[in-house]
Model the fold of this input.
Amino acid sequence: MRIEVNLLPGAKRGKRKASGGASIDFKKLGEQIAAKFKDFYLALAIGGGIVAAVAIGLMFMTQRSKAASLDEALKVAQADSARFAVVLADRARMEARRDSALLQLNIIKAIDEDRFIWPHLLEEVSRALPPYTWLKSVNFTGTPQGTNPAAAYRPPPPDTSKKKKRAVTFELPRDTVRFRIVGHTVDPQAFTRYFRLLEESPFLGNVQFSKTDALIVEGKEVTQFTLDVVYTRPDSSLLKRVVLSPPK
Done:
């Protein structure tokens, strides 16, 4: 049993609503919400803030996932870098030892090739000598030998740039051997033949005619000629090595 008391005398009692439910006036609710957001730009700003907050949240989750994967990749790369650093250091040591051995071999080869310069030179000069021609002198000219010894060669500093390295080459210093030939001949054609034969020699090059003079030797007229020649180092395949003394 429920007792109702009217606290406002004279006021009409409203009709009792049907029991069991309540109705919502959506139109009125919308008008109330619209009344609170009468400014369009304010509503737009609030909506934009909500969208930005959602976007920032999504981006944060995405970036955190990427950061985790990058950290894992960084650990793998650091491990690979440490392993490859050891390999590269070993390779650099091996290349340094190879270059040192190659330099020593080239120095020995250069010294060995220059040991018999004058035997080769005198052999070529005498071998090309035509009949009725004889030599008065064969003198060394130019810079003395030993000015640039191969044993004193020092390789350039290693290239530390990241460019692709080329094969190591050593330009060893070599002395330029120049000499002058003074000879006599009674046949002018023999002089031109001798000049041509000297040019054809693999050990001689840059044969230059200096001068000729007419002389009287023992009552006979002879032609004195002067030639300037440069010793050239031929390819090792042209060299024939023989034993100087028979084995015991």
